[in-house]
């Protein structure tokens, strides 16, 4: 009886480990990057489509000239996201100095400056400070996103 | 109504008009820095007072006041460019503003008065950034300046949502209570964004100057009862009335084809003691046009060879226009720099605060 129980238990444990591995792999595949795109122009909206296609799960539309209530709730959200290790990418800034001023004033971390490029019919986003390009349609760029998240998480 | 009150009311509404014409956009030549008196103030740079996108500069009491539209702060620097203090009170608690649309320094008590267009209120602070009080306004506006200790001029201009005070200019007491209205709004352009001067109301050498959108006149306000006009002659490049008030034409030309329009855009004018300095774009080319009062002559500079930000005037003193520029852009330009300034620029590790540049025609 004891022998049987031990054997059964081992088998059960094996199955559980197998399920855990499969589940882990599935989750790994399903993992989404938490990027917050911040901008005050309509181009930011265009990104929604591309970002969703490329497993980057959060698009945030920010306009500093919006109504005051919207502004403050947006800033609170941004600060929370920033604390939770999301990456915030600002699209309407022109230089590293402006980026630093923005980060300092609103107490944000993990904020990056970006620019738009238009290439062969699809938009992609270039993070100027670190020369990372997201999200283009080929896999190489997703690897760059991987490198980027490893570097800064 | 007694006679005294009647005559007072009559006097109050008399607007004295004297016409004078000055012409611009003649004798065009390339911008030559040697023709200009250029002064540079190198601002100190540190992380806790890094300026994002400066959009208004005021010089008063030997200090530079710079508002930053990106971070909604006002930075105060000493005359020599060293940091003094800042107003960083954006928030939704009492004593905190939501957005800085415009600010002015009250010359009679040295206080900073911020117009918050979200709250439609004036927030008053001292130079150290301490909150003093808030005044809730009964009208919308673009900007304001003190005419004298007891009178403020309010620049309203085409506030679409307002019907109660439908005038282009208001005069208030020093508590922002209306005492006089001027120039009733009869026609409203659908969108005048590309033409409204950034500093359409100015106080230079103790006089208030006002530019009305799409109107080729410079209004000079000496006191409450005397508003003179100076006619600005730009010939055929000034927008025709049919253009300015025809919304379809306006939208087509300015929004979809902004810089190809056949009229001047982004016009502003700075009336100094001996010269009127105008700036504008015409067919994608920036121009500075200077009318010399002594010789009654005009010279116009095509500024396409100038660093971009150098013709974006965001302030003025009694004699100079003020602009702010990244010093690294100055290094690549034809603006003469001293050896000290070149050394400073070459030794910056990161992009520093923009420098203040003062400019006037020699």
Offer a concise description of the structure:
Chain A has 153 residues and is an alpha/beta fold.
Task: Describe the fold and architecture.
The complex is a heterodimer of chains A (153) and B (362). Chain A has 153 residues and is an alpha/beta fold. Chain A has one domain (32-152): Rossmann fold (3-Layer(aba) Sandwich), CATH 3.40.50. Chain A is 54% helix and 17% strand. Chain B is mostly beta strands and 362 residues long. Chain B has a single domain (17-361), classed as TolB, C-terminal domain (Neuraminidase). Chain B has an eight-stranded mixed beta sheet. The longest helix of chain B is centred in the N-terminal third of the chain and has 11 residues, at 3-13. The interface between A and B is medium-sized, with 18 and 24 residues.
Total beta-strand segments of chain A: 5
Highest-level CATH class of chain A: Alpha Beta
Helix fraction of chain B, binned, reads 10-25%
Termini separation of chain A: 50 Å
Taking pLDDT < 50 over at least 5 consecutive residues as the criterion, the unreliable ranges of chain B are: 8-17
The chain-level structural class of chain B is mainly beta
Indicate the overall shape of chain A. elongated
Structural class of chain A: alpha/beta
* Unreliable stretches covering 5 or more consecutive residues of chain A: 28-32, 41-45, 117-124, 129-141
Main sheet makeup of chain A? 5 strands, mixed
Q: Cα distance, first to last residue of chain B?
A: 55 Å
Oligomer: heterodimer
How would you summarize the topology of this molecule?
The complex is a heterodimer of chains A (153) and B (362).
Chain A: H1 2-30, E1 35-38, H2 42-53, H3 68-83, E2 87-90, H4 96-106, E3 111-119, E4 122-127, E5 132-134, H5 139-152
Parallel strand pairs in A: 1-2, 2-3
Antiparallel strand pairs in A: 3-4, 4-5
Chain B: H1 3-13, E1 21-23, E2 28-30, E3 36-41, E4 54-60, E5 63-68, E6 73-78, E7 83-87, E8 102-106, E9 111-116, E10 121-125, E11 131-136, E12 143-148, E13 151-155, E14 167-172, E15 178-184, E16 201-204, E17 207-211, E18 217-223, E19 226-233, H2 241-244, H3 247-255, E20 265-271, E21 275-282, E22 285-292, E23 297-302, E24 315-316, E25 321-325, H4 327-331, H5 339-347, E26 355-361
